[in-house]
Design brief:
It is a single chain. This protein is an alpha/beta fold. It has a domain at about 75-220 and about 315-400: Alpha/Beta hydrolase fold, catalytic domain (Rossmann fold, 3-Layer(aba) Sandwich), CATH 3.40.50.1820. About 40% of the residues lie in helices and about 15% in strands. The chain is built from 15 helices and 8 strands. Helix 1 packs across helix 2 (about 30-50) and helix 9 (about 245-250) crosses helix 10 (about 260-265). The radius of gyration is 21 Å and the shape is globular. The chain starts with a helix and ends with a helix. Bound molecules: 2-acetamido-2-deoxy-beta-D-glucopyranose (5 copies).
Length: about 400
Amino acid sequence: MGYKALCFGFSCILFAYCLYSPIPENIEEPWKVRYVDTLIKTISLTATLFENIGLMKYEKIFSTATAFYITQAVSDENITVIDTDFSNIPVRLYLPKKKLERKRPAVIYIHGGVFVAGSCKMKAHDNLNRLTSNKLGAVVVGIDYRLAPQHPFPAALEDCVSVIKFFLQDSVLAKYKVDPSRICIMGDSSGGTLAATVTQLLRNDPKFKNRIKAQALIYPGLQMIDTFLPSHREYEHGPILSRDMMLKLASLYVTNDSSLIQALLRNEHMPEGSRHLFKFVNWSDFLPEKYKKNHVYIEPVLGKLNASYPALVDSRLFPLLVNDSQLQNLPLTYILTCEHDLLRDDSFIYITRLRNVGVQVVHDHMEGGIHGVLSFTTGSVVLHLGFKIRNRYIRWLEENL
Ligand SMILES: *[C@@H]1O[C@H](CO)[C@@H](O)[C@H](O)[C@H]1NC(C)=O
Ligand SMILES: *[C@@H]1O[C@H](CO)[C@@H](O)[C@H](O)[C@H]1NC(C)=O
Ligand SMILES: *[C@@H]1O[C@H](CO)[C@@H](O)[C@H](O)[C@H]1NC(C)=O
Ligand SMILES: *[C@@H]1O[C@H](CO)[C@@H](O)[C@H](O)[C@H]1NC(C)=O
Ligand SMILES: *[C@@H]1O[C@H](CO)[C@@H](O)[C@H](O)[C@H]1NC(C)=O
């Protein structure tokens, strides 16, 4: 009885919250978005509660929830799907069955999940990679890199680099009939962070300099050194991704020490002597006028955190921290941004910086768009926007890879 009453009470609060939660006006399917947003906020709230009473770590609930969606490798009439490993790191391969004269393009897929959750084997990602393989006749490689906090920075990045270097060997490309001149690296959200970084590392490595034709970044996170960009302020409470949740989870990729979270929230986490890095992410220089609105640039406060985390000044953690001469070498770049996304301005800054040094960038901006919707293309809540983004990205691949 007590349990039922509790559930009922909880549902009422949820429902009221759902009704009340404000979302921007130009969002399509507003009720579904409200529902998903409420659900995620409830998970975050429950996770905080569980952590405070010592039941479970905050991030555990997210990794458990995403693990629920993991699928088996199932081949169909068009594609052979195989789980295997490259260089001891688990990957899922999608190999088109149709015989072709021509060699195939390849897409390397890096999933999101704020470094602590998710898998390329989740249903929505599996569907995306099947579709990509099918539409392009491409070999797709999904990477199941190690996750934080068990495996902090740079574990995830190292796994992605190892897999890609393994795949790029002539013998491996030949085995899967891949055309070495048509390879793209793609990632969404924190997978976009990793995709951008891996692409930089390969492009600046003489041995791999010209091996990647293109990169595709879908609403990526590209820096955390200034956590008060205009989009961070405007979308502090989401929808979908809130500042609190994002910083809490992402900080685990750096450390387990919760003092970093508090410092990140106050934008006082960067060490003394790192001021020179802020010119790379200074939104007052790089953001289009339209998005500056009435925001005033506030310089982050340095040297407030006692512990030192070298990762915070490392461009292998934040792709925006490299200088222009390292950006210059980057390949054709596709970036998809959403208007109502906390991470939006990271991309705007990257796009401006890339174009300033002459990198060819295709920018697809979704007015009314929200973060993370590629994951809402299957299951109990399906958002039309997810399909729209998926189709735009695949169309771009068809025309450019
Ligand atoms: C296989 O490819 C054909 C032609 O593109 C398509 O119509 C069909 O739906 C595909 N099958 C699956 C299971 O995706
Ligand atoms: C952080 O905590 C996880 C367990 O939650 C542990 O496996 C990991 O080793 C810890 N990381 C560090 C850097 O201490
Ligand atoms: C950021 O840009 C503004 C305006 O261009 C400038 O006044 C400020 O000094 C810059 N700050 C840093 C840390 O580069
Ligand atoms: C950092 O160190 C100073 C001096 O040792 C101390 O007063 C302060 O409380 C410490 N701050 C944190 C966040 O631990
Ligand atoms: C850019 O960074 C690289 C690596 O840190 C360094 O070798 C190079 O000198 C830098 N170039 C400029 C123009 O600062």
